[in-house]
Amino acid sequence: MIHQLSRKLTQRIPFKTKGIPVSTAFHPTRSIFFTATKKDVRVYDLIKQKLIKKLESGVREISSISIHPGGDNIIVGSKDGKLCWFDMDLSSQPYKVLRCHPKDITGVAYHRSYPLFASCSDDCTAYVFHGMVYSDLNQNPLIVPLEILRGHSSADGRGVLDCKFHPRQPWLFTAGADSVIKLYCD
Length: 186
Known about the structure:
Blueprint: E1 2-4, E2 9-11, E3 23-26, E4 32-36, E5 40-45, E6 50-56, E7 62-67, E8 73-78, E9 82-87, E10 96-99, E11 105-110, E12 116-121, E13 125-132, E14 142-150, E15 160-165, E16 172-176, E17 181-184
Antiparallel strand pairs: 1-2, 3-4, 4-5, 5-6, 7-8, 8-9, 9-10, 11-12, 12-13, 13-14, 15-16, 16-17
């Protein structure tokens, strides 16, 4: 279902999706809708109501997605601990696959204004990366691991459930299965 707040309307998605949706997201500036199933990410144009692109992740099962504020890059977290970076202008295959977590990735997030992104996992850690996207299309994105954040404890085999960045500060919030929300600000 898609809810249009300005008109106070709710409608069914106007296109057929293949598989059960795991995660969804909107493009930050255009009328594009991303829906992730267990195996792939499908990109739909909401105005033309058609499929634009299908992104093949090559992972066992997708768990979460996040869209870069520029809209042309996507990160995908998977249940086998892999983090895939897609550059929509380059290919439908991942530009870079990072094997950073030994357990399931439960959440991924881009920062709105800083060149940062993060992933969190059931291994009770959150990884913060520097992810610089250049306006020059001939220059590939720069991805550098910055920090491994620890502090949550495991509860029933679950670790960090989700992570989100502060809208203006370079701060990361994590929510754990241990019923604690942590703020990392340094």
